[in-house]
Amino acid sequence: MSQHPTTYVPQSAFGKWFESRLPIAGLVHSSFIAFPVPRNLTYFWTFGAILVFMLVSQIVTGVFLAMYYTPNADLAFQSVEHIMRDVNYGWLLRYLHANGASMFFIAVYLHIFRNFYYGSYKAPREVLYILGVIIFILMMSTAFMGYVLPWGQMSFWGATVITNLFSAIPLVGETIVSFLWGGYAVGNPTLNRFFSLHYLLPFMTLGVVILHIWALHVPGQNNPTGIPIKSGKDAVPFTPYATIKDIFAVVVFMIFFAWWVFYIPNYLGHADNYIPANPAVTPAHIVPEWYFLPFYAILRAIPDKLGGVIAMFSAIIIWVFMPWLDTSKVRSTAYRPLYKQFFWVFVAVCVLLGWLGSKPAEGYYTLAAQICTVYYFAHFLIVLPVLGFVERPLPLPNSILESVMGVQKGGAGIPAGANAEPQSKG
Amino acid sequence: MAETTTHVAEPTRRDFLYIATGAAAAVGGATLVWPFVQSLAPDAATVAAGAPVEVDLTPIAEGQIVKVFWRGRLIFIRHRTPDEVKSAGDVNVASLRDPQSDAERVKDGKAQWLVVYGNCTHLGCVPLGQQGEYKGWFCPCHGSVFDTSGRVRGGPAPTNLPIPSYTFVSDTKIIIGQEEATA
User: Fold this and answer.
1) Nearest by CB: A184 against B72, B141, B142
2) Is B142 a catalytic residue?
């Protein structure tokens, strides 16, 4: 926004009057209409819009669910069944909200791995990227607390296991945990405060999302080549090009979302969560929701309580340092033949960790999780720093236009000046 | 302008006022945060509900584990068989992760009664009784193993199942949440 002074000129007298008092129409115009977008963006760049849609969808369904839900340990489970059976379309609101969390995470993981692949985290987008990591942490906290609210067996024991993570902190751990619980065990005060925070955090997320989009509009979007926009020929205006593409992607994503909601709404849940919370019995096999599984596998891979907790939190915190751990000057993995292989190994390790997180922590599963955990951290601490020095990247195109149209000789069909930009690795 | 900025080697009264104001704001802010944080702690009703509870041991058959709650926390009362008591005693204490003899974990002359908190010391799941390598407890969540004295013998749990404070008021009755007066 700040680098693209608005060219917006209000037409009507009211528009002029209003714009001189609150220049919001100009802000929208420069950010979402005239804003220059690289002409070579793929559908991997539509997940930002999909994520905004999912955040709004979760907030809207959540606000309505909160009208019918009771955050009390004795009534919560019943009130969820009340929503499912008695409230008009309550089943739809709840299934949209519960499956919406999973859709949100599918979209965010694709968004994150797109960022890893195309080096979007590198300068000058470090702050933009770190804001994204903060959003992800807020999302995880919100999802965890939301899962506790139905107060079924998985809710209760998930809450017990996750809050007990903090008891690993030396000296003050037990005190912190009793402050989280508001009692001596997970109970009504815990449920009550989780509901309050579950309602609050999405709005904090929304605030950080606004900062994230603001930070995006300073350098502009990255693109599959990783090279910046050098001339007007490299870009198209946000509206209609990106607007229509984003809307189309959101609609396709809605179809995918609807398939889960209407055909297999409980597929991603656990049957045990339809049993009311019972503090005397732990379900035989407790696993977190699928989107936490890789981190859960890392937690269990370390045969030490404090060590496991540190490893699990480090697995996310290490993302923050990625812009500085990656020493390669080339952003896009498309031009990094060696890193491309390591990238896909890393993806495979993350998927494998997710699968291992769903398995019992015994025998070869634990060993495999330990190997994957070591590799996960080695990717950030060894592969990223070393490859930048040893890898010989492929030649970068001179411009985004050239990468799309091919190198033109003698200026045939390509306006003069489009090829004039000097080669740059940045 | 240049004159005033070049001659401020010595702190002025204004500097003192800035620091004093900042300090007052910091102390005031911290004081204001205190009640908010403190409200998260277990409240008066919860603490009051933590009064000692009396448990009658007569209906608990030998070999049986009974679950009771005190302060919202699960407690196992295990009526151990002579074999279980023996296997709990026949252990090289020094080899344990959290070294404690069985005698330290029960009351004198009441070795058949084991009273322990029922949440795994790893992440709080409820271990299953009479299972695992030592037939004590086995935690299904992350595989911690406890012996018939509730001591950790394997898996990720860092410590033994803790012993709540309790006292025998008669041979067949205990009060949980109350330590012996003589202690």
Assistant:
1) B72
2) yes
